[in-house]
Design brief:
Layout (H helix, E strand, L loop, with lengths): L1 H29 L6 H8 L2 H32 E2 L3 H7 L8 H12 L4 H10 L13 H26 L3 H9 L4 H30 L2 H5 L5 H10 L4 H28 L16 E2 L2 H32 L2 H5 L2 H33 L2 H10 L7 H20 L8 H4 L3 H24 L4 H9 L4 H12 L1 H17 L2 H6 L7 H10 L3 H26 L6
Parallel strand pairs: 1-2
Helix pairs in contact: 1-12, 1-15, 1-16, 1-17, 3-7, 3-9, 3-13, 5-7, 5-13, 7-9, 8-9, 9-12, 11-12, 12-17, 13-25, 15-19, 15-22, 17-19, 19-22, 22-25, 24-25
């Protein structure tokens, strides 16, 4: 009986690992396949631009997210000032704003006769304001949109590291006669470097994977190149060849992030004279500066795009009735519920298998299976279509069976499978963190009381994991609600979500119409972030 159960862990882990490996192998093998003449044209014309723009975007976003994320984390972690308890939570609400929605807001606000023009006209009357209003489009607008949307990755991890740095380290800087700035630069920042690098690596992977904002600002990057190769030129080999270059970038970053995470230490053991850091009370202009920095960041990253979408929704109420909000909500919740169920079931099986087997091969397969999160959605979607097309033509049809393309491509099943590959790491790591809190002695005690492994799992583990499971569902829900390229490419015909509806409206230059689905997306995402904030921002403030 045990061997059957034991094989189940291996079978599930192998299956999940294969699902992750397939798109990687597909892209790698397709790189050497013959493609259309368009690739030769691209290689001689725009390929260098794709790579250069991708690197320029990456450098700009990394710099800005570092400044915003580390700066805000330092202020709320080390100082007391009016509103600090609010800002430490409010700053993560930027996660509710996908980069593509921020891009719509930024462009529209500063556009000719846009929201900024309307405000100035209302306050000062008629005038030639457009010539004085700055324009935020192209690469600059893109960097701003992605940075304000993603800086919270750096903020959360940097804050976790800052929060639990020993008071002894802070006092060391004082004893050496260091100024606050020199103490920060020479002592505090180096101690938090692994956490910051891990946060920046996540930002980098998301930046290279971004499609909606990049497409909106018409910046040619590797991501838009992949999408256009498939949609415009109908050439999967062409798309996979471009994907290969992007995949190289991603795996370099993935390895960097993993190495940093292994070195990261967000707290110190209580042994060895650890003293909890004491926050410094700010007053006067210093308190005002800290408040304004956090408030402006909160305003720009969350209130600004939320306000722009709300303004359009109120100004053009007819757009509310032009879309079926209930249908979009049901479609979104359907994807969330189905994907969450599949992800949690497999993540539970794999985690329990790791717990009872202690097998190195199983651990390796589990590590491999979570690497799907590092692969951009547009690559996963194109690679999935490529693999299904190959498998259908070479295996299914050769055996005389009916085509399976319609079963997996343009279907809910295909969509859930690719969601599974992309977001399995969230489910696995979330449940793993919960299992780490359950001492193995609990299992041993249960066995002594006559509990079977099945009964131990159902009656003891599941209740213990309740909070972790809830957190996983929230994270998955947040990601699927925001996800654009996978849903856009693989969704069934006439099946729309808030994200795809907003994108389609914006791509047709109907930004006002994009406001309603964008507003609902923001509000739903903000709701999930709010209820999960106690898990994200665990802190001992006593």
């Amino acid at each position: 009986m045990f061997s059957i159960k034991f094989n189940l862990w291996f079978l599930s882990s192998i299956l999940i690992s294969l699902l992750v490996i397939i798109p990687i192998l597909t892209v790698s093998v397709s790189f050497f396949e013959e493609t259309s003449r368009y690739f030769e044209i691209l290689k001689d014309t725009f390929l260098f631009d794709y790579i250069f723009n991708s690197l320029s975007l990456l450098i700009g976003v990394l710099f800005l997210t570092f400044v915003l994320g580390v700066g805000s984390a330092y202020i709320v972690s080390f100082f007391k000032f009016p509103g600090v308890n609010f800002f430490k939570w409010a700053l993560i609400l930027s996660f509710a704003i996908p980069p593509y929605i921020y891009a719509y807001s930024l462009f529209a606000f500063f556009d000719n006769y846009g929201t900024a023009f309307t405000i100035l006209k209302y306050i000062f009357g008629d005038g030639e304001y457009n010539q004085h209003i700055p324009k935020f489009d192209g690469m600059f607008g893109l960097i701003l949109s992605i940075s304000f949307s993603l800086f919270a990755y750096v903020y959360i991890l940097a804050r976790s590291s800052f929060l639990y740095q020993s008071q002894n380290l802070i006092e060391l800087g004082k004893n050496l006669g260091f100024s606050k700035f020199k103490s920060f630069y020479s002592i505090i920042l180096p101690a938090a470097r692994p956490a910051i690098v891990a946060g920046l690596s996540l930002v980098a992977m998301e930046t290279l994977a971004e499609f909606g904002a990049v497409d909106f600002f018409s910046v040619n990057t590797l991501t838009t190149g992949i999408y256009n190769a498939w949609i415009t030129f109908d050439d999967l080999a062409f798309a996979n060849r471009i994907s290969f270059f992007l995949l190289l970038f991603i795996f370099i970053l993935f390895i960097t992030e993993n190495l940093s995470r292994k070195k990261a230490k967000y707290h110190l053991d209580s042994r060895g004279g650890f003293k909890q850091k004491e926050k410094i009370n700010l007053s006067g202009y210093q308190s005002l500066f800290a408040f304004l920095f956090c408030f402006i960041l909160f305003f720009l990253s969350f209130l600004f795009p939320l306000g722009q979408m709300l303004y359009w929704t109120i100004k053009f109420p007819e757009n509310f009735f032009d879309i079926n909000v209930i249908n979009l909500l049901l479609n979104t919740l359907y994807l969330v519920g189905l994907s969450s169920l599949v992800l949690i079931v497999f993540a539970l099986i794999s985690n329990y298998g790791n717990r009872v087997s202690k097998n190195k091969t199983l651990n390796f397969l589990s590590t491999l299976s979570i690497s799907g999160y590092a692969i951009p959605g547009v690559i996963l979607a194109v690679a999935f279509i490529t693999f299904i097309a190959w498998f259908d033509n070479t295996v299914i049809k050769s055996l005389g069976f009916l085509s399976i393309k319609k079963v997996f491509i343009g279907s809910i099943l295909g969509l859930v499978i690719v969601y599974f590959i992309r977001f399995y790491s969230l489910a696995f790591n979330g449940i793993k963190s919960g299992y780490e809190k359950i001492n193995l002695s609990v299992d041993e005690s249960a066995y002594l009381l006559g509990y079977s492994k099945r009964k131990t799992f159902l009656n003891i583990h599941i209740p213990y994991l309740r909070n972790s499971l809830l957190f996983v569902v929230i994270l998955i829900s947040l990601e699927i609600i925001r996800e654009l390229p996978i849903t856009l490419v693989l969704r069934p015909f006439n099946f729309e979500t808030f994200a795809t509806t907003a994108y389609i409206s914006a791509s047709e230059d109907m930004l006002e119409a994009a406001a309603v689905p964008s507003l609902f997306l923001i509000l739903i995402a903000a709701f999930f972030i709010t209820i999960s904030s106690k898990y994200i921002l665990k802190e001992n403030d006593e």
